[in-house]
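User: Earlier you gave me the apo prediction for this protein. Now I'd like the version with magnesium ion bound, so I can compare the two side by side. Same sequence as before, with the ligand SMILES added.
Assistant: Got it. Here's the input I'm using:
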Amino acid sequence: MSLKITGLTKSYKQGTESLSILRNLELEVGTSQVVAVVGASGSGKSTFLSLVAGLDRFDKGDIVINQTSIKNLSRAQMTQFRGENIGFVFQQFHLISHLTAFENLSLPLEILNRKYKDADIMQRLEQVGLGPRADHKPTEMSGGECQRLALARGLVTQPSLLLADEPSGNLDSETGQKVMNLFFDQVRKTKTTTVLVTHDLELAKRCDEVFVLKDGSLHLQPRKYLDL
Ligand SMILES: Nc1ncnc2c1ncn2[C@@H]1O[C@H](COP(=O)(O)OP(=O)(O)OP(=O)(O)O)[C@@H](O)[C@H]1O
Ligand SMILES: [Mg+2]
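And here is the structure of the complex with magnesium ion:
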């Protein structure tokens, strides 16, 4: 699964004002590559990921995911395409509050009419240390537990493109390290093309390439500057 973005431009309308967020952003991610996007708070990282996931519309440019130009997809086609191909780990989790951890994790498979065994779901919960929380709803879980569930959900459909927004942001450093080890194990093993937004330079360094989002576009960060 490759990702090619050209001339991506996005602004938000605020009353009569237009707030320019992304300007002619370009990015190419090869199959199985894992890239990091870092950048100041408010620079547009979450906006960028939501455009790539087709969750929001852009003004100009194009996003091509494995030869499919997503700007030409209808809303229904985009929903189907996203379900089949893209895993998303949201910064604010977006778990479904009236469903248990188990149900939150199996829902993406139900929606796609994919066959699965309860034991597979339990195994994925156990991998992120949530076996004992299978029957808990998100309101009955800690922030870090919700984060781990969101991460497991991003991977449950075995997407070929994974978009992750600060997946370790709500975890203490020890748990964060464990969960991110799991994250890297899984994306490397499954050769999942991945865009990881993070504030954590240590995490960014584990990716194949690191880009800084600044002034509306992405700038490749030479590795030597990450070691300072
Ligand atoms: N729906 C919206 N309408 C108007 N402005 C928005 C909207 N969503 C985001 N913004 C603005 O766009 C800018 C970029 O927001 P975004 O959430 O993409 O930043 P970010 O880089 O992810 O920041 P953080 O590191 O804090 O998560 C911010 O200034 C924000 O206020
Ligand atoms: Mg953000």
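For your comparison, keep in mind: The first strand starts at residue 3 and ends at 14.
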